[in-house]
Amino acid sequence: MRFYPRPGTEPGTRWLARQHPAALLGLLLCSAGGALAALALPAALGHTIDRLVAGGPVPWSGLLLCAALTLAETGFDATAAVTGATTTARLTASLRTRTAARLLAAEPRRALALPTGDLTARLTARTADAASAPVTAAGAVAGVLLPLGAIAGLLLIDVWTAAALLLGAPLLVALLRAFTRRTADAGADYQRAQSLIAHRLTEALEGADTIRAARTGAREHRRVLEPLTALAGHGRRTWAVYGRAVGRSGLLLPLLMLLVLAVAGLRLGAGAIGVGDLVAASRYASLAVGIGALTGALGSLARSRAAARSLEPLLTLPPLPHRGLGPPPDAPGRLELRNVGVEQDGGPLLAGVHLTVPGGTSLAVVGRSGSGKSVLAAVTGRLLDPDTGSVLLDGVPMDSMEPARLRREVAYAFARPALPGVTVEDTIAYGPWTASPEAVRDAARAARADGFLALLPYGYATPVADAPLSGGERQRLGLARAFAHPGRLLILDDALSGLDTVTEHHVRRALDARAGRCTRVIVAHRLSSAARADRVAWLEDGRVRATGRHDDLWADPDYRAVFRTDGGPGTGPGETGTLETGPGGGTVGGTATGTAGADSPRASDRGAGGAVPAARTPATPAAGAEDR
């Protein structure tokens, strides 16, 4: 029976409230204490005034009580403000951690369904808005207690005065309801515009080289900032909603105050209440109609609700299912793909893939651009779960393995690796476990990275942000990180494309040295990669067209055409075409060149006409996905 960890779809506000219950309880008590002090002050003030009007000694006890209540209200409000700000910051950190954890624990295809910029906006601004909900709700106690307590105080002073206030209560409720609804709609639209700007800016940053080469900076600048018009419109709409609410309340509330005071004055003239009661009634009426704090709380809660809705798809991402199994110890790393299929948008990316890679051997995956090579690489290491079929490592289905145990057995290297960590040494050591300094240096030598690292200002201690790294040097750091965390399966997804011929030769020797103890799957764009592999899997349109040794497949002209750099699909063996050189400089047919294969990443591949790269497709893990 397959075990699926509980998705954890509990409402975010309730979950957040349980993260810091003591702080929220303290905030609740401070808000309530401040409201009660504010409600007690009019009664104490009215009683003191009545004693002063009646003559006799100065009522020092009443004056001291009024002063104490004033200080208590001020103290409670100040404490609530500090506690609220501190708790909001802590809850924001908790929510960001939880959201990021859910994202990283999910299958990458689901996690990367959102564009990068939108995802960044949700993990930053949206989490801050959503995390403020418990604090706002706790602080809103004062906004609710004050009008309710004021009405109760008026009822105790004089029923007719209270009735005058209650005449306007339905209008106040309608005003607050309309304000909350319109603020929520405007806030949601504002957040969507923010996400669009963040997405386009991320695209522009990722395609900066292409934009610079195509001289389309001005056009990209306009494209990124184009949603600012809508953003400004939504912002103005938010302020317009607030302004209308303030304007209407500015008309309604003084009329209510005037009505209450008029009725209270008439009751004073009739002898039903005293001067102190009149003062207390005016103060209670002011508290009852002073809905500014409640309006602000409702607006904040509306924004928090909109932000929480945008986070819900991330918080409800199901984690990778597993049964807690692990690969058998001391097994060679035999890899099997049984009828594997992957679909996206109703179309197949892989279909009916059957492959067996004996433990300790190497498999080169070749094919034209779009044939499904990177998708296959993602499936073999469970960065992506197939829609049909299964993947087994040493006879154990990968979707049954506990993810943490699986990650210790599978190492990845990518064409554009992410470089986490403060220093270069941190970057290489980063992984399922922190590699030792000795392992870091051995891995750097194997990846031929030790030479350029020795030239950095502080060697291995150089901050990554200060290291001027080329694309090939970044690839070598990614390879070194994979070498520093050896497992039974190593997957290279175009991780050699940026290396020169000599460096590639030495890295391949390091890969060959792992024969017999590590299974290697290499997405190959260069002829030399396929020539040195034990077996080749030739993909075409998401299917395995053929498998075998490179020398045997070379007899097929369509296979040879995969490695041609100047011909299209119809290029045959008799046509003019250039082929890549192997490490020793030899070729099999054609003219030797040092160029990359047909789908090697180039600046021009980022988009036609200088356009920035499109949003990441869910089925292809982005650079750095190995850090999951």
Give a description of the structure.
With 628 residues, this protein is of the alpha/beta class. It has helices at residues 12-17, 21-54, 60-105, 108-111, 116-157, 159-166, 169-206, 208-214, 217-225, 228-269, 275-289, 292-315, 373-380, 403-407, 424-429, 437-446, 450-454, 471-483, 501-512, 527-532, 550-553, 557-562, and strands at 335-344, 347-357, 362-366, 388-393, 396-397, 410-414, 489-493, 519-523, 535-540, 543-548, 578-580, 591-593. A six-stranded mixed sheet has the order 6-7-8-3-9-10. Helix 7 (169-206) packs across helix 12. The longest helix has 46 residues, at 60-105. The chain is elongated, with a radius of gyration of 34 Å. The two termini are 26 Å apart.
Topology, element by element:
Elements lengths: L11 H6 L3 H34 L5 H46 L2 H4 L4 H42 L1 H8 L2 H38 L1 H7 L2 H9 L2 H42 L5 H15 L2 H24 L19 E10 L2 E11 L4 E5 L6 H8 L7 E6 L2 E2 L5 H5 L2 E5 L9 H6 L7 H10 L3 H5 L16 H13 L5 E5 L7 H12 L6 E5 L3 H6 L2 E6 L2 E6 L1 H4 L3 H6 L15 E3 L10 E3 L35
Parallel strand pairs: 3-8, 3-9, 6-7, 7-8, 11-12
Antiparallel strand pairs: 1-2, 1-4, 4-5, 9-10
